[in-house]
Amino acid sequence: MQDELVEEDEHTLQLPTFVLPQTSREVFLHAYCLRSIISNEDHLAVEEEKLIEVILEENKECVHLLQQVHPGLIVPYRGAYEAFQKTNTDRIRHILSSLRELWNHLLRTLAPNKEVLLWISNESEEYLSNGKPTKRARLMYICRNINNEPLSDFVDSDVKASLKFIDTLNRVHQIDCPFTEEQLRALLIRSDSIIIFLINLWRGP
């Protein structure tokens, strides 16, 4: 038992310094985003609102990180936020469309086909679709260097949560997109947080 704890500590020490605090934030934001989408309430507890304000301040780093990955990613990113500030009838669809475009390009940039295909097994149906890497494969590839104890379960859960988030953006195809203001804000905050986490992993320690 003691040997297992020592081994776990060694794995923890090898992780990039930003990973552990970021994982706690990801867990909180996933719960916040999920609750916002399920519930129609447009208010938070005081403690949660304070945490969100701190995260919003930290998320300002997102633009800088996207710029480092590819300057073109700034266009859909700003498009989503500009649409959020407007009051036009179809603004919700514009927000979802911009976020969807951003995520499609971001995942392909952080996890290119060639690199992911070399990393995964050709027999993995879970990671391949029509010979190309799935979104799950790309996310797992980006997280590959932290996908060990004590974070293996977290990585698996976080990837699943990220995929759920990305799937939510596909509601852009629906005629009616009945998101509340709090839900839209939750989507934007969650998107920024995942982006920061993934790009930091992509950049390395």
Tell me what you see in this structure.
This protein is an all-alpha fold. It has one domain. Helices cover about 70% and strands about 0% of the residues. It is built from ten helices and two strands. Helix 5 packs antiparallel against helix 6 and helix 6 packs parallel to helix 10. The radius of gyration is 18 Å and the shape is globular.
Number of domains: 1
Separate helix tally: 10
User: Strand percentage, roughly?
Assistant: under 5%
Q: Gyration radius, to the nearest Å? A: 18 Å
Quantity of strands, as a count: 2
Could you name the key traits of this structure?
mainly alpha; two-stranded antiparallel sheet; globular; 205 residues; 10 helices
Topology:
Elements lengths: L1 H13 L4 H20 L7 H13 L2 H9 L4 H12 L5 H20 L2 H7 L8 E2 L2 E2 L1 H8 L9 H17 L12 H23 L2
Antiparallel strand pairs: 1-2
Helix pairs in contact: 2-9, 2-10, 4-10, 5-6, 6-10, 8-9
Pfam families: pP_pnuc_1
InterPro entries: pP_pnuc_1
Describe the structure in brief:
This protein is mostly helical and 205 residues long. Helices cover 69% and strands 2% of the residues. It has one domain.
